[in-house]
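User: Hi! I'm working on a homework problem where we have to compare a predicted structure to a textbook description. Could you give me the structure for the chain below?
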Amino acid sequence: MKITICSSAFFVKEVYEIKEKLEEKGHEVFVFPQKVKVGGKLIDVEEYYRMRKDNLTHDLLKIKTQLMNEHLERIKNSDAILVLNFDKDGKEGYIGGNTFLEMGIAYYLGKKIFLWKMPSKNLPYFEEILALNPIVVEEDIEKIV
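Assistant: Happy to help. Predicted structure tokens:
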């Protein structure tokens, strides 16, 4: 199965670990890049997101748009998405705005949506997440079929 992993860039290390495990199971896995080009040099994606949070310039926003478009193309070319919704900032099963957007697009395109674990009921769009009919795999790669 072709799977695109969606998550906060904050979890880039975990994304690549799970990508490897899924590939060992025979899946073709697409993920966001570990590095992005900013001002002519490659930097870690986590650093790019910190820069963007501190000072969102027009150039950084253009990079964000490009990254979003590339990731949506990955979703379009996949059979399913896997949302890695680890805990973040005291929120269990965190799903940020961009990941929620990706889930909505995957749903619209008729892709399977796998959730790593149940999202926090405190998320402002908890009900909408459940309405997308995700398959919660309870942190078990074997349930991704």
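For your comparison, note the following. Helices lie at 12-24, 45-54, 58-76, 97-108, 126-131. The radius of gyration is 15 Å. Good luck with the assignment!
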